[in-house]
Amino acid sequence: MLAFANQSGEYHPGPANMLTLPVVLVATAAAGWLLIKLLERVVPPVRHRIHLRIANNRRLLAAANSESTARAMMDELCPDGWHAEILLFSSAHELPLQAPNPERTRVQLDWKELNDSAELRRIWARDLKSALEAMVADRITEETLQRIEQQALADGANWPDA
């Protein structure tokens, strides 16, 4: 290492020390460039996984909310109680022959109100949320028709079933 001393005894960098700063700057810039390239490869897949996990959690929460809402409404609409069986199919090959649309149907829901005159009803849907909503809508429609029939009988109409 060459260094030159001036009159006060201080050392000034020689030719070898003059390259230190540019070499350190170039090495730092290269390390930064490599770090950026590495992050460009790592960050998008990690971000994608995080977004998938968030979407999956939201979907599960929505399914749980729709199930609890359907249970509460059915408990209110069926004072004697009700029973439901749900079958989930993973592919169109597993579906029974009576399934309405194999490409769009994955859920079979059979439900029944717990009283003597209730009949078993079957609902086909593409997902569990749609099946539960259809079950509630079916029960609301049935209750509305019962009210109309009772009102017509109270008004003295000749109802076909009476």
Instruction: Give the integer mean of the pLDDT values.
Output: 83
Series of secondary-structure elements, N-terminal to C-terminal? EEHEEEH
Strand content: 15-25%
Report the helical percentage: 40-55%
What are the low-pLDDT stretches, counting only 5+ consecutive residues below 50?
A: none
Distance between the termini: 115 Å
The number of helices is: 2
The helix/strand class is alpha+beta
DSSP strand count: 5
* Overall spatial form: rod-shaped
Rg (CA only): 37 Å
Strand neighbour order, sheet with most strands: 3-4-5
Sheet with the most strands? 3 strands, antiparallel
Write the layout of secondary structure elements.
Layout: E1 3-5, E2 11-13, H1 20-77, E3 82-88, E4 107-113, E5 121-125, H2 128-154
Antiparallel strand pairs: 1-2, 3-4, 4-5
Task: Briefly summarize what is shown.
The chain has 162 residues and is an alpha+beta fold. 52% of the residues lie in helices and 15% in strands.
Describe this structure in words.
With 162 residues, the protein is α+β, with helices and mostly antiparallel strands. The protein has a domain at 50-153. 52% of the residues lie in helices and 15% in strands. The chain is built from two helices and five strands; from the N terminus they run ββαβββα. The chain has helices at 20-77, 128-154; strands spanning 3-5, 11-13, 82-88, 107-113, 121-125. It has a three-stranded antiparallel β-sheet with strand order 3-4-5. A two-stranded antiparallel ribbon has the order 1-2. A hairpin with a 7-residue loop joins strand 4 (107-113) and strand 5. The longest helix has 58 residues, at 20-77. The model has no long low-confidence stretch (mean pLDDT 83).
